[in-house]
Amino acid sequence: MPRSPANLTAIRPVARGKGAAGKKQAVSRPAVPEAELQDTTRRIAEAITAAIVERRLMPGTKLAEQKIADIFKVSRTIVRQALHQLSRDKLVTLTQARGARVAQPSVEEARQVFEVRQMLEAAMIKRAAAELSEPQIAQLRRHLRDEEAAVQRTDVPGRTHLLADFHVVLARMLGNEALADILRELVSRSSLISLMYQSAHSAEHSFAEHVAIVDAIEARDARAAVKLMQSHLHNVERNLRLNPRVPDLPSVLHAGDPS
User: Fold this and answer.
1) pTM higher than 0.90 for the full model?
2) For residue 126, which of 211, 224, 215 has the smallest C-alpha distance?
3) Percentage of residues in the chain having pLDDT higher than 70
């Protein structure tokens, strides 16, 4: 009798012949451990999130289940679980007609995301100025050096990731994983929003603002740190074209301009 494929992942009965009572007996392949399935789902979700944050996946990009399954060598069921997770995080939209696509946040959603970040990060940075240890501040300085290096070598994916991760690193240093998870989601959504609405925003400027924030933390100046963080987030939001000017059609099409 032909053997079952070695790479079969689903649990499926396989005929083994007849038993004493003349009935067919069946055996099942060992189930893939639940922890392994969850780890694979998380790995796929993190890879897609990183591609969004690092601006390798644009808003509206179709996420074909079979292609992703082929890339990670897993079943479409596992890919579907990862996409549903990203849908809950507002990074992916799922519809019957169009399938899964990278989300396209609205202007109102963009404003709401930055409003929440202002509230959370003001409180976070106030605590950081009072509680972070000298070794933690030194770790932040190392992070800033990595940011600067990525900015100087025009490493767009690298600098985008590092500039965004700065905020999550601060939350994690306070020992609050719940806050770090919330900020990670908000920062990812902010990156997606930036892809749609960002003007010629200066990475160098964001890096300089991060340096000033760490300087204030090291000086234990909570008031200055809060003001600097609020200003930083305001500047990032201000550089988004959330109120785009409706163009004049003739000027856009260069009507009457022979060149």
Assistant:
1) no
2) 224
3) 77
